[in-house]
Recover the amino acids of this structure.
């Protein structure tokens, strides 16, 4: 496995989560390609940590579908499986609809402003062709109603299933369909600001449910 030559620093106080995020992001951004074998010793050397947090991260990545772990044999990056993507997309769409439905009556002007700011940065990032920044801004926008809703079960389900969709989101934001995302954001924010629970929930659902299920 070709491991990158640079060694990103790891936050020791949050070692397990940091290692997980770095490996997750490496799979999502293509640093580790589908079908590539992941060896815990090489990954540990790259990150400058022991094998234990790497093994724990690989188990979490298997749980969310980004790697396929074969105990005693090998761990490989999973392919973009259409069925798995569709299943994750449907669950994520339902969770965001539920979160928005619960959050709209509680959203403050500061919450709406935070969504607008994230939407602006998202649109600017798309114009600049910076998909990583666009993904980050998109996360921030949709995190507002999820946080305001305060449903820990929803947050836990999203944490499990969102990683599978990240590779598909990159495909969308780099495509012509991605150019329609700012309009979806504008509709969502407008309906949230107007207190339109049903309308905002419907837009939230469709935003996620319209994701493609393959990279083709």
């Amino acid at each position: 496995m070709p491991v990158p030559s640079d060694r990103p620093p790891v936050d020791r106080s949050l070692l397990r989560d940091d290692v997980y995020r770095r490996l997750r992001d490496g799979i999502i951004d293509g640093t580790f390609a589908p079908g590539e074998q992941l060896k815990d010793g090489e990954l540990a050397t790259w990150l400058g940590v022991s094998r234990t947090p790497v093994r724990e991260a690989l188990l979490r990545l298997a749980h969310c579908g980004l790697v396929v772990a074969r105990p005693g044999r090998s761990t490989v990056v999973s392919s973009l499986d259409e069925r798995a993507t569709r299943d994750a997309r449907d669950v994520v769409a339902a969770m965001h609809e539920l979160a928005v439905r619960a959050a709209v009556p509680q959203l403050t002007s500061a919450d709406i402003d935070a969504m607008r700011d994230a939407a602006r940065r998202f649109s600017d990032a798309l114009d600049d062709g910076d998909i990583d920044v666009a993904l980050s801004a998109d996360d921030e926008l949709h995190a507002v109603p999820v946080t305001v809703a305060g449903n820990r079960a929803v947050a836990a389900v999203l944490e499990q299933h969102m990683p599978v969709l990240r590779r598909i989101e990159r495909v969308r934001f780099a495509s012509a369909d991605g150019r329609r995302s700012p309009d979806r954001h504008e509709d969502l924010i407008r309906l949230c600001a107007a207190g339109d629970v049903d309308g905002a929930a419907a837009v939230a659902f469709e935003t996620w449910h319209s994701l493609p299920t393959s990279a083709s």
